[in-house]
Design a protein that fits this description.
Layout: H1 13-22, E1 24-27, H2 33-57, H3 70-81, H4 86-89, H5 108-114, H6 117-127, E2 131-142, E3 160-163, E4 179-184, E5 195-197, E6 210-211, E7 221-222, E8 233-235, E9 242-245, E10 251-253, E11 262-271, E12 284-287, H7 299-315
Antiparallel strand pairs: 1-9, 2-11, 2-12, 3-10, 4-9, 4-11, 5-8, 5-10, 6-7
């Protein structure tokens, strides 16, 4: 279901019913591209400034291309420098090889985006008013596959194979009410790699995921092709549209076959007090009518939570972020 443009920030009863039946719903125009998304774009322009400066300093890049807008500048500088950019722009940490200087981004504009009132109003319709921001969260800036250097090819920059979000967290959170919230910063269409879903797949149990052996998706865990339902629906979306998805809905990020970037955020929210499925990463209370003082208000405090987590993980042993052993019959 794709709803008409949203004027009151609420999710309708019909949309909730569609979510319950099909495992997803797209709400049009829930976020304001100018008020809600533009500050994030401007913040990422400063992130790219720092990357470009480093690439020039290290001899990977000859020109800063600072006359270009963000999307074109990112494409031009990454294509020329052949340097990875995903971790420096992500709002999480990787699942392995975390060092004390592993890049990440937790700026105030992103923090305010996670706490946007109309977004939380909508989330409340699905999970209730006591809302926790789950730390399984990413920004994905997919460059055209024909132009993306292999050195920069990761799950944050290219295609994402079929999976269920429950399949990429630990099993302590299997019965938790984790809601996926996905929205584009740029247009997301069939050409540049929008999301696709399998309607109704949330009614199935969690299916086997295997570690990908494909050189372009190496390290991802994904559902084997034989277990993916063939009834697949692409979801073209515009900036301001928001997709709400059940934790067991099968979905994939299609390949970017355009000459444009496709930039999106995928966030997760759940009722306060439940396991997050990624206990080593920090979440925070985003809304709590019963205990307003517990709500995190300070973006610097949010950033510090991630800095502290990075230090702990860098100092200790690697931890296991997924449940799959690749020993099942479907993983041959």
């Amino acid at each position: 279901m794709v709803a008409p443009p949203n004027s009151d920030g609420l999710v309708s009863d019909a949309e909730l019913a569609h979510f319950d039946e099909q495992g997803y719903v797209v709400v049009r125009g829930l976020l304001d591209p100018t008020d809600d998304l533009k500050p994030v774009v401007e913040e990422y322009e400063t992130v790219l400034d720092r990357l470009v400066s480093d690439w020039i300093r290290d001899g990977h890049l000859a020109e800063p291309h600072d006359e270009l807008p963000f999307d074109q500048r990112l494409l031009a500088t990454v294509a020329e420098s052949r340097q990875p950019y995903d971790l420096a722009m992500d709002i999480s940490l990787p699942q392995a090889n975390i060092a004390s200087d592993t890049p990440m981004h937790h700026g105030p504009a992103v923090f305010h985006l996670l706490r946007t009132p109309q977004l939380l109003d909508a989330v409340e319709r699905f999970i209730g008013p006591e809302i926790y921001s789950n730390p399984v969260q990413h920004t994905r800036i997919k460059l055209p596959e024909s132009l993306l250097p292999r050195e920069a090819w990761t799950g944050l920059t290219a295609r994402i194979d079929w999976h269920q979000d429950q399949g990429v967290i630990t099993d302590d959170a299997d019965n938790c009410q984790i809601l996926t919230v996905w929205f584009p910063i740029t247009d997301a269409d069939l050409e540049n790699g929008c999301l696709a879903v399998v309607p109704g797949s949330h009614r199935r149990e969690l299916v086997t995921h295997c570690k990908s052996q494909h050189p372009l998706t190496l390290g991802q865990v994904a559902i084997p092709e034989s277990l993916v339902d063939p009834h697949q629906v692409p979801l073209p979306m515009s900036p301001g549209d928001v997709l709400f998805m059940h934790r067991r809905t099968q979905h994939a990020g299609l390949p970017n076959r355009s000459q444009r970037i496709r930039w999106s955020f995928d966030l997760r929210y759940q009722p306060i007090g439940e396991p997050t499925g990624r206990e080593w990463f920090p979440g925070f209370v985003a809304r709590s009518p019963s205990n307003p003082s517990a709500v995190l208000q300070d973006p610097l405090a949010w950033n510090q939570l991630w800095l502290d987590a990075r230090e702990r993980l860098a100092a200790g042993r690697d931890v296991s972020f997924n449940r799959w052993s690749d020993q099942g019959p479907h993983c041959a």
